[in-house]
Write a structure and sequence with these properties.
The complex is a heterodimer of chains A (236) and B (479).
Chain A: H1 3-6, E1 11-15, H2 19-31, E2 35-39, H3 42-51, E3 56-60, H4 68-77, E4 84-88, H5 93-101, E5 106-109, H6 114-127, E6 136-139, E7 142-145, E8 150-153, E9 156-158, H7 162-173, E10 178-180, H8 181-189, H9 198-211, E11 219-222, E12 226-229
Parallel strand pairs in A: 1-2, 1-3, 3-4, 4-5
Antiparallel strand pairs in A: 6-7, 7-8, 8-9, 10-12, 11-12
Chain B: H1 2-6, H2 9-62, H3 77-87, E1 92-97, E2 103-106, H4 121-128, E3 134-140, E4 143-152, E5 163-170, H5 172-222, H6 238-286, H7 293-323, E6 332-335, H8 336-351, E7 356-359, E8 365-368, H9 370-386, E9 394-401, E10 404-411, H10 418-422, H11 445-455, E11 460-465, E12 469-477
Parallel strand pairs in B: 7-9
Antiparallel strand pairs in B: 1-2, 1-5, 3-4, 4-5, 6-8, 9-10, 10-12, 11-12
Helix pairs in contact in B: 2-3, 2-5, 6-7, 7-11, 8-9, 9-11
The chains are: A alpha/beta (236), B alpha+beta (479).
Chain lengths: 236, 479
Amino acid sequence: MSTDKNDNKIKILVIEDDPVITEFLCTGLRYEGYEVTPRTTGKAGLDALQQATFDLIILDVMLPDIDGFEVCQHIRNHASNIPILMLTVKKAISDRVRGLDSGADDYMTKPFSFDELLARIRALLRRSGRIHESKRLQAGAIVLDLQTREVTKDGKKINLTPTEFGLLELFMRHPHRVFTRETLLNRVLGYDYDGGTNIIDVHISHLRSKLGDRPPRLIRTIYAVGYAFYPEETST
Amino acid sequence: MRAWDKLSLRARLGLLYTVLLVFSVVLVGCYSYWNIWQLFISNKSSQLRARAKPIIEHWLIDNDLANSDNPHLKLNPQKAFILARDLTSRDTVAIVLNQKGDIIANGKRLPEEPEAPTPDKHYLRRALAGENEVTYRSQVNGKPVLVLLIPLRPQPASPRIFGVIQMSTLLTDIREILFHHGAMLVSLVAIILILGIGTGFWLIGASLKDLQVLLVSCDQISKGNLSQRVSVKNHRDEISRLAVSFNRMIEKLEATFASQQRFVANAAHELMTPLTGLRGSLEVLLRGAQDDPSAMARLSKGMYREVNRLIRLCEQLLGLSQLESSSNVNKQPIVLSEFFNEFKADAQVLAGGRSLTIQQGPCVKVSADPDLLKQILLNLLSNALRYSPSETPVVIGWKLVVGEVEIWVSDQGQGMDAETLSHAFEPFYQGKNTVVSGDKGIGLGLSLAKSMVEAQGGMIRIESEPGKGTTVSFTLPLK
């Protein structure tokens, strides 16, 4: 990790005492490009807040020392408007209300889906103005509109199936990143898709032909691994 | 008897009450009717006697019979007739009989005067024998008459009897009065019965109303509404007392149900945490972390830990549910020193490199289930190891107390505060203590240990001082 790159990254503080949950949160969030600082107690979390600034806090309600609600109130009392996402096992409405009343911005009950967690994190960051997610992704002549789900190349509309659209979106969001066929399958067709990875090759070849992708390709085959997306450098 | 069993309690009590009421009121009515009849008759007879007495005395003096000593005195029919005539009136007729019982004079002269009944031999003999107050009832032409026999004596106290006067009077007037009286009595009895039965049924209904309320409440409770309570005003009678104890019983049931629900909720809650870890780790792996061997290793280790935790939790839940039936407890005599020699190996595995001492106590035999005993000790030992620093020792030992053996597991860890101590045996309760070494527990260990000790007829207690350590001791019966 290069230090100058870290400055642009969104910083997330995870206050959670369960080591396994902390582990997957850190790993998963880092893969999504966030910088994660894990803390296992409320006190340690508050200390971390004093030392550094964060863009978002993921806070567990059941902490060994201070109650999550109290931590939340403590943060809010110091006039910080940092987005707080609370995690808890309790499903009772009173607990939700209490969580939101104590100053949390959102609330998720365990066991939660990691995809949903990411979606909520993005929503919280957007709302607080920490990221400006554009509604369009652009790579060279290719423009992908996330709202209308339309793809154009040089202004001409290209008709893509939902799977092809999902693949292109994933590639355009993570340029240069190498995805294995397995990962592409899971990300685009869902975790419970029960088929061979060859289907990904079929979808990629369709996508390539629709995009008019000729060597040197935008979507390159990485031998024995998978695929990666290399957008055309429009300038420079 | 079957029809009687089919009746409701209210109908049965009402019927019983009605029968008793009818019986007693009819009895009282009959007695009073008879009593009045007797009163009338005795009144009438004394009235007649009172009237006859001066007339007879006068007649005796007039006929010089009062001082006559002649034992063979014969009644003159003319003289006797005068007497009979004097004694006869509109409703009364007198006849005079001689010593042999033959009629010598009959007072009836006028047609409106009543007939005299034929003298009854039996009563006549009694009167001739000297009985003064012979009174009986007879009939003349189907009409009731009262008959009085008065022996004739020269002097009132004289033993000599020279004749008998039979006076008879019609009882039709008395009968009429009594008929009216009887009719009144019957209507009174009817009114009393109607009112009595009515109020009786009403009273029975009113006192059984609470029972009805109780019944309705029971019905609702049986449909699952445990928050229902029976409300009864009076707190003295049996039904109210029943309602009160019924309420108490329902309260206990409700508390048991609530604790059961809490337990299930807690168990589900405990399952959720490892499941969250598992699901999240799997998702992260599937999203692409599987391509990174180091992430893969870290996440799989965590998942392995979570799966183990789930298995442990399920085992303990299963253990708790099995202990509910005592048939799963296989008690047998155990020599404690032998048992601990075997146990030491298992304990040492659990303790790892930590210092673990088993203090041999007196040589005794206890009655216990060896598997349960082992589980209890492993539970207590893992708690002791978890909440004490790794450099401090854990000690297990036993000693004799009155009639029992007390086994203890003692650590020198952080101890518990009073609040944690008071909840220590509650399922899923975890104090604010931080785990010093190893995994976080589930919160079932102590409550499971308690159930296991109690299933073997022992008691468990916990002593702790913050900062100094904790000792858990339990008793087992001696063999």
